[in-house]
Amino acid sequence: MGMNKNTVLAWATFIMIIMGLILISLGAFRYYEIAGWGFSAVGIGFFAIAWVFNALKGRV
Which end of the chain is more exposed for a tag (fewer CB within 10 A), N or C? Predict the structure, then answer.
């Protein structure tokens, strides 16, 4: 199974989106105190990185 650059970026984007969802849901549902804000912020950061990976997919 050959993993070219686009496949790697697609998988990385997918994993980042899953992790972002997990972190945001942890922040929203598990931790009600100030730590929840940190989890949610990191989750949103994961979404931003996934968006960058997705934008780079055709150009690398």
Answer: N
